[in-house]
Design a protein that fits this description.
Shape of chain A: elongated
Strand content of chain A: 5-15%
Strand order of the largest sheet of chain B: 8-1-9
Bound molecules: iron/sulfur cluster
Radius of gyration of chain A: 26 Å
Largest interface: A-B, 66 and 65 residues
Pfam families (chain B): Fer4_11
Number of helices of chain A: 14
Keywords (chain A): Membrane, Transmembrane, Transmembrane helix
Oligomer: heterodimer
InterPro entries (chain A): NarG-like_sf (IPR036197)
Distance between the termini of chain A: 44 Å
Helix content of chain B: 10-25%
Protein name (chain B): Electron transfer protein
Largest sheet of chain B: 3 strands, mixed
Order of helices and strands of chain B: EHEEHEEHEEHHEHEH
Protein name (chain A): Respiratory nitrate reductase subunit gamma
Shape of chain B: globular
């Protein structure tokens, strides 16, 4: 909205002037980066796996979509603030712990229910595993060469990383990484589907396109992937090229869809680490006291940021009687509202608010 | 036909049925999202419910960095999307009425969603279906207009939304008895 009006042109020539927009520049840098990595990884394009060409195109389109979404999102005033301050606070001592908690073991989801946690671990880590294997293979950053002596060499970015025995455990794990990932995702998606069909809490809120489509997409990818292995091992490759195309298609569709639907929370989730750092850091600095009861309820910084963000949206909280709502803690704010309705100053009565949690 | 939540605050007798009903709505996971306050706790028993008023320009959603608070086509301002909420609590301090609740364990905000799976199909939200004193009602705009005539408040004190609230709201609030200085007979 107001984003485009505030750009100030600096005189003189900078590299930035070569690009039509921030968006174009980030896009250019990303694709250039991918190309360079691929150039190095493939030992100057001598080891490109053309079977995986479709994925490459899919990834590029995905990156385009992702940047588009990310920039539209990052331009919103509150998001912008969190990204800016989050980056500044990135090197807090607690960052690794928070990051592991929020992005790897999902403690907060366990608190929402163990079933949902298991399902999320299976889907989440299945996808991460698959991604970690596929991505380097697609861009040929990693590949395998076979020597005559029964050993494979894993080559990463053109460097020989290690020799593994062709029938050893590491080799087995690497051939089957995608199968393991597929089984994890399938199990997780089935759990999720079961919950969505059976659990009344979940059923009340779900929407088909938003909640089911991503699950079906993941299921489709996993099953076509597993079928590929099945055709290979049991059917001696019968119909494999066709299935491979179907699989590729499903992956590409999912990649393109990813930044726009429910799965968009994957790339955006790291912001929760920013948010935690932000809250921890600024509440150590200076807390805001409620003007009525004196309770410290939020950091001054956050309060000011919210006021500023709301100001951009033309919302302000100055009351006729000299109160500013941002100066009241939440219970006092509620009581103040009751006072506005009734004409009696409820918030001035020194009684703690009654328990507001009914037990269902 | 589009209906709204309509509050006649002074009818409230403090039974807290609305809180209990709120916990039972699908998707609320047995936690209530509304409030009932004693107006003058040390002196009398008058209570009033406090609900999310579903602002037309909701401060909670505007302050959310994750776009987790969505506005439904019916005008209802929804609870945070579980996968999107990053737990910053901006919304809780942005709301002029202090409505959104925050669960630190789950790192998740939850707030009134007008029982969206009900109200999107025209079924009243849980609170309005159970309120025994018609403090909370589910009415069409015409019915609300009729209320306005019924209470015959030509002193400009009919409270719907502006200028007594911070902004235009989808939920309409009224205090006919108090504003007329009469005691209502139920
Ligand atoms: S009353 Fe508060 S929580 Fe409800 S829509 Fe308005 S700002 Fe959001
Ligand atoms: S706590 Fe969640 S819903 Fe509230 S502003 Fe932060 S991200 Fe949005």
């Amino acid at each position: 909205m107001q984003a485009n009006t505030s750009i100030t042109k600096k005189p003189g020539s900078s590299v930035n002037d070569a690009f039509a927009s921030h968006f174009a520049k980030s896009m250019f840098l990303t694709i250039a980066g991918l190309l360079i990595l691929t150039f190095i990884g493939t030992r100057m394009f001598t080891h490109v796996d053309l079977n995986l060409y479709g994925y490459m195109v899919g990834t590029i389109v995905f990156i385009g979509g992702f940047f588009y979404r990310f920039i539209a999102w990052g331009e919103r005033p509150p998001t912008k603030l969190f990204i800016k301050k989050g980056l500044k606070l990135l090197f807090r001592k607690s960052t690794p712990k928070t990051a592991v908690n929020h992005l790897a073991i999902y403690d907060f989801i366990r608190n929402r229910g163990v079933y949902r946690w298991v399902q999320h671990i299976l889907i989440g880590w299945g996808c991460v595993l698959a991604f970690l294997v596929t991505f380097p293979l697609v861009f040929s950053w990693m590949y395998f060469t076979m020597e005559d002596n029964g050993y494979y060499t894993i080559v990463l970015f053109g460097m020989n990383i290690m020799n593994v025995k062709a029938d050893g455990i590491i080799a087995w794990l690497s051939y089957n990484a995608l199968n393991i990932a597929a089984i994890m995702v399938t199990a997780g998606v089935c759990m999720a589907l079961y919950r969505r069909l059976k659990n009344m809490q979940a059923r009340a809120e779900q929407k088909f396109m938003y909640d089911f489509l991503p699950l079906y997409l993941l299921l489709f990818i996993s099953i076509t992937g597993l079928l590929l292995t099945f055709q290979n091992v049991v059917l001696h490759g019968w119909m494999q090229p066709q299935m491979s195309l179907i699989h590729q298609f499903s992956v590409i569709v999912t990649l393109i869809y990813l930044p726009f639907g429910k799965l968009a929370h994957i790339p955006f989730r790291p912001l929760s680490v920013f948010a935690r750092n932000y809250r921890e850091h600024y509440s150590e600095q200076h807390m805001k006291e409620c003007k009525v009861c004196g309770d410290q309820f939020v950091s001054v910084e956050q309060s000011n940021d919210v006021i500023q963000v709301l100001d951009v949206n033309e919302i302000d909280f100055n009351m006729n009687d000299g109160f500013n709502l941002a100066e009241l803690c939440l219970p006092c704010r509620r009581k103040y509202r009751i006072a506005k309705f009734s004409g009696f100053a409820t918030h001035q009565v020194k009684v703690k608010e009654a328990n507001q949690n009914a037990n269902g | 036909m589009k209906k709204r939540l309509y509050l006649e605050l002074e009818n409230c007798i403090g039974c807290r049925s609305c809180l209990a009903a709120c916990t039972q709505c699908g998707g609320h996971e047995e936690r209530n999202r509304n409030y009932v306050y004693d107006v003058n706790p040390l002196v009398n028993r008058q209570t009033m419910p406090l609900m999310c008023l579903h602002c037309v320009n909701p401060a909670c959603a505007r302050s959310c960095p994750a776009q987790a608070i969505q506005i439904h086509e019916t005008g209802a301002v929804l609870s945070a999307l579980v996968e999107k909420c990053i737990g910053c609590q901006n919304c809780t301090i942005a709301c002029p009425y202090g409505i959104p609740k925050f669960d630190t364990e789950q790192n998740l905000m939850y707030k009134c969603d007008l029982c969206i799976d009900r109200s999107k199909d025209g079924i009243p939200p849980m609170c309005a279906s159970v309120c025994p004193t018609n403090t909370l009602q589910w009415l069409t705009d015409e019915e609300i207009e009729a209320k306005q005539k019924q209470f015959n408040l030509d002193n400009g004190k009919w409270v719907t939304s502006m200028p007594y609230l911070e902004g235009e709201t989808n939920v309409k609030v009224n205090l006919p008895g108090i504003l007329q200085g009469v005691t209502k007979l139920f």
